[in-house]
User: Fold these one by one.
Assistant:
Number 1:
Amino acid sequence: MVALPLTPEAASIFEEPEYRVEGPLKVSGRARYTSDVRLPGMLVARFLFSPHPHARIVSIDTAAAKAVPGVHAVLTSQDIGERRFGRYLYDWPVLAFDRVLFVGERVAAVAAETLDAAQEAINRIEVEYEELPAVFDAEEALAEGAPILHPDPSGYYYLTGERPSRPHLNLQGYRLVQKGEQDIERVFARAYRVFEDEYVGPKQHQGYIEPHVCVVWIDEAGHVHVFSTNKAPFSLRHQLSVVTGEPAQNITVDSMFIGGDFGGKGHSIEEFPCYFLAKATGRPVKALMTYAEELGACNPRHDGKIYVRTAVTRQGKIIAHQSRAYYNGGACAGAKPMPGLLFPTGFSALQVYSVPNTRMETFMSYTNTVPGGHMRAPGATLAALAGEEHVDHIARELGIDPLELRLINALRHGETGPMGEENANPRAVEVLEAVKRDTNWGEPLPPNQGRGIALRLRDVGQGKTEMVLRLLPDGNIEALYATPDQGSGSATVIRRVAAAVLSVQPERVQIRYGTTSDAPPDPGSGASRVTHIVGRAAILAATRMKEQLETLAAEVMGWPEGEVQLENDRFIAGTESAPFEEVAARIARGEPVEVRGEYDSHAGDEKPEDASFYACVVEVEVDPDTGQVRPLNGTIVVDVGTIINPIAHQGQLDGSFVYGLGNAVMEELAVEDGKITTLSLGEYKLPTEMDAPPLRTILVPTEIGPGPFGAKAAGEITNSGVAPAVANAIRDAVGVRIKEMPITAERVYEALRARSATS
């Protein structure tokens, strides 16, 4: 909810054109990324990857590799022991032992003086494998007789203690949610119509340009220094401590600037073997993934399949919904940061609708494929296709306008979502009314052109963080925090929020990112939480700092205590006043002034979810002879709170739409016998400006939001609604339904052919 009223002064700060705090460093090339780190004596690491999806390791011979000039260490699990890592569940071997579980699993590690020497050593390692039966499909992994990937997981470390039980050993996680009538079949039996559909989504890469990079160095005192592209440095520090046995305070992780993320940089792989290489050699060790390794053996979006079944009345009111979602978690669950090893609970297919009776199951399976990780709005894109294409199917079969059917069923105040979740301010109706009022919805289009809509929501991220504000000797104020900047401009948000609370010019707030040894704990970037939790911590710290400065200003200026106010960059006491810089400089000559702001979104009473509702409307043209789909126009209607940085906010919405368009129509990591075959960006297509249609944004503002001054999340809002909007537009244009991503010309063409064959 609103933490502070939005004063005219704060509003003027937020409305100013964006000045990115880190902008000068980036445009001048002075911003330091992990790849830029150079240390004396630094070695290069390379890894031997498994060529098999499932095989027993019979033997490994490293003698020839160790003989390569310039090689300082060659390690296998025989050297480092049976060690596993992960974010929540530690089930991913640092180096494979006994068996390999997927193509691309790291089997051996080499540190050498040059990349060529390291690669030559890798080429000389001889491994004898005995191939074993493999399973690649999430549903088949649960069938009788499927190979069990982790037969004895009882000793795996789990972050919060006891791991939730699962009904099958090949399940990473399982959830059953029921709402309303327990015997849901009774509701289906009395429905006017029942609709059933099946939807499929592929593995996809997050699409950041900077690959994963790390440098690990152990100094003479034994302190471990880690430079990493990991966006959650405190989490990585904890993982390294568990895996290596090093005390957490003996490890410093530095992740200052990150060259893109989109969900993929919260997970680390090579930092763990690099620690053992650094320990074995006594030298700093650097590992940089190639893009073939990124695409083939990192942490892609999970592929999956969702079965949905929905019961409706004659008037189109949804009275029951059932779903079974099977997600391919890959060979390990270590890349997942969530308890239960599942996606966040809000990503149900019908998340924006009031459904009185539900039964929803989610299965996250182990398979012999590359372990799945998080990608922008994890799980949401496939769930959105499954929900919103399904709703259109119902609407068209009942002869109801798709927007009107959504209005009939949209979540309203006092109602709960399909999983029983409450929402603090459900605004589905307001968003849909804006579509009706402010777009060309309902206007006829030429032949082979169609218009589609999707309605979704995105929960704001939660968490706990801290921030320190210090008065500097020059009278400026330093904000010390530990959230890495992965390109979202979080430092600018912090500066603006702190300045608005302090009532000073934004330039007076100096932002300093700190390592895990400098700054207070932070959960890292991601989950649409940064503006929410870091912004709220900034408000608390700035409020305390302002109170202290006003008290100290009275002392140094000889003004009456309790009458001093800091407003508009000046200290004011009755009829007297003085510029901020003059008074702050005098205060700084005394004792240090430092305050801390701690914010925990989970503290206190249980609160309803805060979410942003949005609609995506897409117009397309379909070539009936080839199936080629050309997006003509896009419109996003977004429920927003106070906007801290208008340019960055719009950039997030625009970028998220284009991101969603790529997910929808072109991006797919193709898999053959467990091996990813799209191993270059020439094969894995990412959208460019030329692929994006004209895009219009319609904002539906509110003063209610969880972030500072009532702000809401923006980073992951619009991407998941694009695919179903495109699919629905294709149905509107040429009458065929596409229920699998990506929605390629080939799939549309095959659907057109199939319709012709049956007509």
Note: The chain is about 25% helix and 25% strand.
Number 2:
Amino acid sequence: MLSAQPVANLTAPKACTLTLAHFRHFWGCGRLTSVQKISKQYGEKYLFKDISLHIGKGECIALVGANGTGKTTLMKIIVGEVEPDSGSVARSRLSTAGYLPQDGVFHKGKTLYKEVETVFDELISLHERIEEISREISIHTSRNNPESLRMEGLVEELGTVQNIMEHREGYNTETKIKQILSGLGFKENDLHRMTEEFSGGWHMRIELAKLLLREPTILLLDEPTNHLDIESLEWLENYLMSYGGSIILVSHDSRFLDNLAVRVVEVSMGKVTEYTGNFSSYVEQKTQRLAILHSTYENQKRLIQKTSRFIERFRYKNTKAKQVQSRIKMLEKMDLIELEKNEKTISFDFPQPPRPGRVVMALNKIIKSYGNNPVFEGLDLTIERGDRIAFLGVNGSGKSTLARIIAGSEFFQDGTRKPGHNVFISYYAQNMAEELNPDKTVLEMVNEIPAPISGKELRTLLGCFLFTGDDISKPVSVLSGGEKSRLALARMLITPANLLVFDEPTNHLDIQSKAVLQRSLENFTGTYIIVSHDRDFLSSLINKVVVLKNGELDLYHGTVDEYLQKHHADRDFTEEMEKKKSAPQPGKEQKRKEAEERQERYRKLKPLKDALNKIEEEIAIMEEKKGRIEAAFTDSKTYESENKIQSLNIEHDKITSRLKFLYDEWTDIEEEIGRIIK
């Protein structure tokens, strides 16, 4: 069981949670935490070796890399749950870290409201810290040393902690708790339910709510979207956009990363590589970097071969001895370029299905309840050939239940379910770990399905899903979540089907595997239904959206993105109309005051916007120079002159350093503009 408690800075006298605004005021620096030359080894294998990373103020970092590269371990090292074998983590004195693991969190013994309310117990620690600082100040005063650096630091810290107290006690805690819980999908009548009554995914939401209320200076989230529906995901995304602290994200949801991340840190081959920009920018930059790296590798290989031939040819000639020794030393000092290994990924296509009738499935007057809790009361739905439908709705609205009814694996009390002519259904369950027999091996799980293919073809199929060699003899009980997801997909391919039903298929797939599944569905000529909160995954697949709410459904013809745009526009319009109804009409005095506020805002904004424009112009120039240098790296002629290579490398480092500074300045000014506009 993983600990779900945030880890406060280990050097602070008392654990206290600061907002970033207070942190900046007190420290006035740009670095919250630095990971310095850390290594972590399990057995003979290094997860990473001598890696360094800094976490800047207010930035959101996406941590990416293949499964097993050490992303989660790195996060645990940052919060202090795991000790590195070597190296150190330097934390600012008053910073705190909050960590949300992927799973394994369970709460009991309190109601939902009381459990979440415990985060405000930390105010006691703040009171105690104020008393400690006051005592230290008294001691320094009694020693007639009021101007010492320590004294100045204590006075500033006292002011900071008092400001934090005002901030934490200044808002209505009940309102804040309800706001966070509502955003994460809890209802008013959930507040007084015991936490034991909630399922595992809701426990993760409870822990996330507690973290957001604590407001740690560094928020580390490991796959936070796995347990959210689209509405809660969008709420979290908007909340994090305005979050005051720094954020580190691990997620397979590329759109989530695109909308939040300003820097991407890739963990691969025991090293970290940093990229400026969001996830899409990272993908483009990595492609360019790998092309440059491969070209440089080939050039270095040719240089080594040429040098080695010279050494072998003239090794025993006295007249060439000095040159031979010079080249031997050059080879010894040369930093060998190492190419990244191609990450293995799944590879498959759904078999093209038999053609069904026009109507694939008809549900009529479906009534479904669990005990006294009704889910559907007379639901109708017709699925036609070629439909590609997304089921959307908050958790508990019946998406998974409806998917199981369509798949034929869920009982309902009344109504009719009528599959169309020549319809064959294949179903991917959300709780796939429970669906697979833990005592059977990988091969036995695919063998149990009546297969029109040979044993050799089954092994080939498993190989496409990265089950090779002894892997096919592994029992299901030892498989990871991602491996179980791949096995479930493999089972779907054994028998051709023309109606595919997926319930959260991407939850345990990495980004590469998710992309392969997406491409396979794009090429599939049958009909499918997908329950998912992954907007990027759904964006290119869907032509109809079914929204479930209060036991009823709304059918929208169009893509998920088109539906969400309409939904947001409708919601914004409704909120605006409500505001206009409740807002008092301004009088002359109010209008005069508003005009003065606009003028004052303009006076403050103009120099900031001018500075921003200058920075953007310089960034454009620097990026253009950097691009020209990187293009030169791909030109083989560049490597004919060692001086030229050295000069380009020095210039590239200077530009990269300058760009980092400019982007930090740009971010600070943007945030200042945002505070003024607010």
Note: Residues 7-277 form a domain with the Rossmann fold fold (CATH 3.40.50.300).
